């Protein structure tokens, strides 16, 4: 048996993987529409730091559950060799590099949904790793899951990794268009604000 579906740790891990992006997307969208976290925390930046802390903490819990799930699963002899471990190490290091460098490039508010709080980036980040991948945080995280699964030679880890990417892909279908909408609205508001003084000036000239 390659995957032991009777293990509760497997299902807990899958549940956590599903819950995390769903929870932060729901919370952030509600924040955008109602400013509930901004009001609760006494400011947009404080609210963003609060959700960043929650996301980071849930990520630690998810990773702990994942490692426990791998420990409870059968090992595949086909994956238990030096070459696979080399590939696993490269995947994990590359994945964590993408995650760390994208966080550095975006900053805390850029990484953890600051745009939903009205904290917008002044310009699009185009340097590494965004010049290599469009979504380096999600890709890097998936690579780390895959690397860990291969390192421990656990087929169940491969299944979990595939589910991680599916959940991330679904999340991106919601996050991408919504974020684009936020910036489009901000751009329209800025353009309208720039035109307003010009209209007032023209009226004054007529008077």
TrEMBL record:
UniProt-recorded name of the protein: Phosphatidyl-N-methylethanolamine N-methyltransferase
Give its E.C. classification number.
2.1.1.71
Indicate whether Endoplasmic reticulum appears among the record's keywords. yes
Gene name of the record: OPI3
Query: tRNA-binding among the record's keywords?
Result: no
Which molecular function GO terms apply here? phosphatidyl-N-methylethanolamine N-methyltransferase activity
What pathway is it annotated to? Lipid metabolism; Phospholipid metabolism; phosphatidylcholine biosynthesis
Which keywords are on file for this protein? Endoplasmic reticulum, Lipid biosynthesis, Lipid metabolism, Membrane, Methyltransferase, Mitochondrion, Phospholipid biosynthesis, Phospholipid metabolism, S-adenosyl-L-methionine, Transferase, Transmembrane, Transmembrane helix
Q: Which reaction does it catalyse?
A: a 1,2-diacyl-sn-glycero-3-phospho-N,N-dimethylethanolamine + S-adenosyl-L-methionine = a 1,2-diacyl-sn-glycero-3-phosphocholine + S-adenosyl-L-homocysteine + H(+); a 1,2-diacyl-sn-glycero-3-phospho-N-methylethanolamine + S-adenosyl-L-methionine = a 1,2-diacyl-sn-glycero-3-phospho-N,N-dimethylethanolamine + S-adenosyl-L-homocysteine + H(+)
Q: Which PANTHER family match?
A: PHOSPHATIDYLETHANOLAMINE N-METHYLTRANSFERASE
């Amino acid at each position: 048996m390659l995957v032991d579906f009777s293990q509760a740790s497997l299902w807990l891990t899958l549940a956590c993987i599903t819950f995390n992006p769903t929870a932060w997307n729901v919370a952030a969208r509600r924040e955008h529409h109602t400013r509930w976290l901004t009001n609760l925390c006494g400011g947009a930046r404080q609210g963003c730091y609060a959700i960043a802390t929650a996301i980071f903490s849930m990520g630690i819990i998810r990773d702990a559950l994942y490692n426990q799930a791998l420990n409870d699963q059968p090992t595949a002899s086909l994956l238990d060799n030096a070459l696979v471990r080399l590939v696993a190490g490269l995947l994990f290091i590359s994945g964590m590099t993408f995650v760390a460098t994208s966080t550095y490039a975006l900053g805390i508010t850029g990484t953890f949904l600051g745009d939903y709080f009205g904290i917008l980036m002044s310009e699009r980040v185009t340097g590494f790793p965004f010049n290599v991948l469009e979504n380096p945080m999600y890709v890097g995280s998936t690579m780390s899951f895959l690397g860990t699964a291969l390192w421990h030679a656990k087929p169940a880890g491969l299944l979990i990794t595939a589910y991680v990417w599916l959940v991330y892909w679904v999340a991106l279908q919601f996050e991408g268009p919504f974020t684009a909408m936020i910036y489009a609205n901000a751009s329209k508001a800025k353009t309208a604000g720039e035109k307003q003084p010009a209209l007032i000036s023209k009226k004054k000239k007529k008077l």
